[in-house]
Design goal:
The protein has about 180 residues and is an alpha/beta fold. It has six helices and seven strands, in the order αββαβαβαβαββα.
């Protein structure tokens, strides 16, 4: 079974059950207030994110580099990638330009997803530089979005979002899901 299929089944089985809980110190990290999402809320956010990736031209097998802390948006991004067959490559929050330039050169991601700032470091500015030099699109979760970047879609999903995602064939369980 695929990750996307397992999630869809869980969301359908118990949509009002809590699916994900942000860390209690999310606000202190500069990421806004902590949230709890039900499976229905998370599924809607996943659909909105997946539709955004499709609108940006991402297709199955394309790589998305993600530098996000352990917040609900990170979980939703994994699930959106899983639904579309997009390959997600998570990188540690501690990585800076030196490590990221090497990873971007190796993976040639079509999109870079990061947060605005975290522990007082401007991840969006670094992400903008990486995206500019690699030709990738930059998506930013939380806070102000730098010029040339897009805010990461967090839902709720629209009917158009759902139709767009439904039009993409679901990947098989044998497809590559992540590169770590």
């Amino acid at each position: 079974e695929s990750v996307g299929g397992l999630f869809a089944r869980a969301a359908t089985a118990d949509p009002l059950r809590t699916a994900v809980i942000d860390p209690a110190n999310r606000a202190a990290l500069g990421l806004g207030e902590a949230r709890r999402l039900t499976y229905a809320e998370l599924a809607s956010a996943v659909t909105a994110m997946a539709a955004q990736l499709v609108r940006l031209g991402l297709r199955p097998g394309d790589v998305v580099l993600a530098q996000l802390p352990n917040v609900w948006e990170c979980v939703a991004l994994y699930l959106a990638a899983a639904r579309l067959g997009v390959v997600l490559s998570p990188v540690a929050m501690q990585y800076r330009r030196h490590e990221l330039e090497q990873i971007v050169a190796l993976l040639e991601p079509r999109a870079v997803v990061t947060c605005r700032s975290f522990k007082e470091f401007d991840y969006a500015a670094l992400g903008a530089e990486l995206a500019r030099h690699s030709g990738a699109r930059l998506l930013v979760a939380g806070g102000e979005v730098p010029p040339g970047a897009d805010a990461l879609a967090t839902g709720p999903a629209t009917g158009d979002d759902a139709a767009m995602v439904a039009a993409v064939a679901a990947p098989s369980a044998d497809d590559v899901f992540t590169i770590c």
